[in-house]
Amino acid sequence: MAEIELNRLDFITVGTVGPKGKRQFYLQAGGESQIVSLFIEKDQARVLGEALRDMLDDLMKNNPNLGSDMPEMSRMNMELREPFEGRFRVSRIGLGYDDARDQVVLVAEELVILPGEGEDGEPILGSGSVARFWGSRQQMRALSLQCLDIVKQGRANPAHNGRVLYYWT
After folding, report:
1. pLDDT beneath 50: ranges in the chain
2. Angle CA 131–38–120, to nearest 5
3. What is the pTM of this model?
């Protein structure tokens, strides 16, 4: 079990490796001369993008004195950086805001499945590694936009994953 803490990010992004339908999604952050890549699911990327958007919108609404959090996307490099080696698969993602530092924290917890099943037949989840990424509101707004964009780049209808479609004329 490891704890990863990046207090000042040079970048944070979500990206994919592989062809449509077989893409591997990564949450990746870099700072303090290290790059941390974590495996996430497509749906986690979508939910993360929506949650960040909503959180940042609420912050702006409730704190009108905060400066703009809209990033200049042309100046942001949202590409994945090598290495793509994921440290762990993410089970849960949490978000927080430190108003004294004007920083957003993204907390990612490792998915650990213990042997056996719970009373409801579901797998038993354990605790594992944790990664905390501290970034500016602008970086997190850019991440939100990137998450939502990268999810849209998939197949037109993801409901057809692995299914054969028959058309009659």
Report:
1. 162-169
2. 85
3. 0.83
SS3 44: helix
The angle subtended at Cα 10 by Cα 127 and Cα 142, nearest 5°, is: 85
In a 13 Å sphere around the CA of 22, the CA atoms on its Cβ side amount to 2
| Residue 48 domain flag | yes
Strand ranges inside 82-165, DSSP E? 86-98, 103-110, 112-117, 123-126, 130-135
Specify the pLDDT at position 156. 56
Classify residue 90: in a domain, yes or no.
yes
* Residue span of the structural domain in which 56 resides: 3-157
pLDDT score at 157: 56
Q: Which of 24, 34, 26 is nearest to 2 (CA)?
A: 34
Which residues lie across from 92 on neighbouring strands? 109
Q: CA-CA distance, 140 to 163, in Å (whole number)?
A: 36
Task: Check residue 141 and report its DSSP letter.
Answer: H
Q: How far is CA 58 from CA 62, 78, 109, 142, 146, in A?
A: 6, 24, 24, 16, 19
User: Considering the domain boundaries, does residue 162 fall inside one?
Assistant: no
Q: 3-class DSSP state for residue 168? A: coil
Angle between the 42-62 and 137-152 helix axes, to the nearest 10 degrees?
140
In the chain, the number of structural domains is 1
